[in-house]
Design brief:
This is Flavodoxin-like domain-containing protein. With about 90 residues, this protein is of the alpha+beta class. The chain has one domain. It has two helices and two strands. Helix 2 links the parallel strand 1 and strand 2.
Amino acid sequence: MASSDRAGEAYRFDGLRALYVNCTLKRSPEVSNTEGLLERSRALVEERGVTTEVVRAVDHDIAAGVFPACASTAGRATSGPCCTSG
């Protein structure tokens, strides 16, 4: 076994999960250059046993801003801190 193979086995991260948030301005299924870069990174961590998921932010209704400013969204967002009650 080559020394690089042994080093690779020493750096396993099985059981870990990673969430990639793609902040491209292009909605799915448009081609995104950001997605191409993200996929290169994703492949590297998956080789080490990490389970990954990708979310394209533009495909979701996420309120922008900080919490006090969320009152102006009037419930239009479906995710994020502005949607929590209390």
